[in-house]
User: Fold these one by one.
Assistant:
Number 1:
Amino acid sequence: MTKPDTAERILDIAEKAARTGGYNAFSFREIAAEIGIKSASVHYHFPTKEALGEALAGRYSDNFFKVLGDPQGAEPAELLKRYVAAYGAALKQDGLMCLCGVFGAEIADLPPPVARATRAFFERNLDWLRQVHCRHGMAPEQAEKAAAHMIAALEGAMILARAMGDAALFDAAVARLS
Amino acid sequence: MTKPDTAERILDIAEKAARTGGYNAFSFREIAAEIGIKSASVHYHFPTKEALGEALAGRYSDNFFKVLGDPQGAEPAELLKRYVAAYGAALKQDGLMCLCGVFGAEIADLPPPVARATRAFFERNLDWLRQVHCRHGMAPEQAEKAAAHMIAALEGAMILARAMGDAALFDAAVARLS
DNA sequence: ATTCTCCTATCTATCAATAGGTAGATAGAT
DNA sequence: ATCTATCTACCTATTGATAGATAGGAGAAT
């Protein structure tokens, strides 16, 4: 039989809540209640909230880049299309914000380890995009700007679409990117 | 003498906290402590937290569009430059996020009146930009996309710059806009 | 085979801190 | 005498976190 893997379920539930309302939107008690255990048992798997938040951002980042694949792999144009689609999927399939987008908005109030993990996500994004743009024949200076622009447009597009309750606004906002 | 105008001070303090850590980052007690009154007195000016949040978003929006001015006023190119500068000022002068950007990221967890006021901010943004772009000779369809794109890029650029602790990333991300 | 030991994962029970909110009193100004 | 703005004192709910007990399984020692 498939083992419950409580730690994974904790992360799943916490991620969903965090991507809806930020770092304060998930609590040990709510997570425990949804699984059907006690809040003390959640502390067994993640000793503190900041440890849970850090694991959350780390797993989200890893999953994200597993989908994107090697920046030196497929054709640059194809990779960029895949990049935009990854954000779109997070919004439309999950119906949620980007976890690190939410954390990024409130970064100054996050515990240092969570803030670090959030920063790492954006650093990896910048790095991945810089590589792809350079392969596409762009000068390093321009690649840097293009990378920052793409991240910004996609994170902002998610906020705008969710705020207005209109997923079509996401597509409108990022139409010029791909 | 200048009267204290407690309500205004409450809004100032709450706005700063909210633009740092979102809706849960400001509390009646913290606001009261910073002013030097009791939390019950804050309830006198704003009966509930959602009323305070709503007033917060409303005032932020009004101030923002007072800076921008009439979309039918100055030259379109000049207006767009002013628009980008307004976001840049919010980030660099205040050192804070856009209030409605933070609220937008956690909109699904906000009390309905606060969510409405946040949506109204973005609606006004879309409207203002649509008008300016149309005046600039853009077709309505393209103006809609361009408007959504600008809002998204600017909100996202603020998140990225704050998350990475590097204001230059804001300029890099929005370089192509103006 | 039985017993002892250890680890895993959960439980009960509780703590101190903080949250938003309310009732009712009070001082001062109009 | 009324209104404004504050106070004191309290309530209930929720938060993250901890101490200590418990049940069950795995492996080793007898």
Number 2:
Amino acid sequence: MRDRVREAVRVLDYHPNIMAQGLARQRSYLIGLVYENPSPSYGVDLQMGVLDRLRGERYRLVVLPVRSVNDHADEVVGLLRSAAIDGVVLAPPASDSRRILDELVGIGMPFARISPTQFDDIVPGVVVDDVVAAAEVAGAVLAQGHRRIGIIKGDPTHAASSARMTGYADAFAAAGARIDPTRVIDGLFTFDSGFAAARTLLDRPDRPTAILAQNDDMAVGALMAARELGIDVPRDLSIVGFDDSEIARITWPRITTMRQPVFDMAVSATSLLLDQLSGTPVPATIAHEHRLILRESIAPPPVAGG
Amino acid sequence: MRDRVREAVRVLDYHPNIMAQGLARQRSYLIGLVYENPSPSYGVDLQMGVLDRLRGERYRLVVLPVRSVNDHADEVVGLLRSAAIDGVVLAPPASDSRRILDELVGIGMPFARISPTQFDDIVPGVVVDDVVAAAEVAGAVLAQGHRRIGIIKGDPTHAASSARMTGYADAFAAAGARIDPTRVIDGLFTFDSGFAAARTLLDRPDRPTAILAQNDDMAVGALMAARELGIDVPRDLSIVGFDDSEIARITWPRITTMRQPVFDMAVSATSLLLDQLSGTPVPATIAHEHRLILRESIAPPPVAGG
DNA sequence: ATGAAAGCGCTAACAA
DNA sequence: TTGTTAGCGCTTTCAT
């Protein structure tokens, strides 16, 4: 009998109607990924991670890009409900939006936060220690002897930007130095913003001997700016990034950076979400390790500038 | 009365249940994007294009990445049906899979093909002339005087690979030259495959003075290989890519490439799909223009090699 | 203009 | 084990 059904399925080429299934069982088997898209590198790793984890699972991924999370936090939740999504992976800065988190809790939609930096009571989430990581990468530059250091921050609406700034400051303090606020420029996590910021930093006569960029796209932008000004990296200028995106290893010199396992974090976050959806208890937090990736983009400062 | 309803909606914070709506009206407001992911650059442009067109529309995007379209063509269709998708944008090489196209036609699911190269009767689709485009970029290299030219092909399972090869051959013929088959290597559209292929090409004593890569990721891989071998680009080696992805403008030297408006093509394909879904008649084909983007990665061959 | 009712295709609870 | 039935929340058709 069981076999007769199978046979009929085959003969009729029967495929269940997902929406009827969903209606009856209150489940769409769709999960969402909310993110802003400043850095393509980051977005790719993120999405690949989620998709990788979803492979073989019944769930599908709906991408919900948002222009600016902070401007449109309310829309996001409406988006989520109206998309009939079972749960959502929140990437920065959506993962730090009180508004979004509260609504999600309110409507009882499961979620997993990637790199949350506040509201620690709202779980689960996947984290790395941004502050310590930033301190380490800044420390590597300071250890080379650099003191005239420019900083290209990330998008100010992302909490990671200030967290990394704090880490930089810690490293400077530990080295008996301090950050020169006139050499700190806000970027947007994009190549172009890094390029522009670096031009500003490098156009000054007392230009920095090193630049700390808060992600790799901006670091590569800075590298391009240096190139156009005829400044040799790393001889005349050291540059470090953050993330260890693919972009950091395809340039020349390759960029020294702080590895943040975005792909793995996305996998973990997705697991956290799937577990919730299947009723499995989940830990409040999954921590991932950062790691300094030393490449050719740093060197001691030039003698004249040391 | 109408107002009383609106008021109730507000008070109860009523949100329609999409799946019930879907069940009743046989529509999920979900569209799919099927693609293989060799080149991250291409994938990003593609997806951004679709999402951009979807902004403000009711439709959401479900991403359906496929390991290898050719190995799993049958799965794809199952995926599509079971995902309750209203229509699908097919990127290469899914857009060239007879199996997939037939099934789609069979079940009556609307679709739009991006860069189809065969089965012209199956429409609609968004195209650029790969052959002519490839001929132009090869022509630019030949015009510099290069004759010992290496070629890094794309993934052989993508029809674009052979189309571009045809274009290269046309250009060689027009220049009274011919392709040296021993200098043609299959790549996979990835940075690493371009790197490996370039190493092979450059390790020979009579190494080429120019390399044609069939996309930008591989061109940048070739650039890296040259760097590691101490070969100066463009002085000792010219390199050109294809696509004009962001990756081609963030390296040094920046890569001369053939602009293929992937983003715009994705927008057009999505429009084609949305129009079908709304019952609007659509043209069989939307053509997009290619354009040679001259950058610093090419120069005349070195004298000793000319 | 408003109300009533019959599905949409499935799941889950219950009977047989 | 197999069969039956009542919803799931909406749209659409038909009556009022």
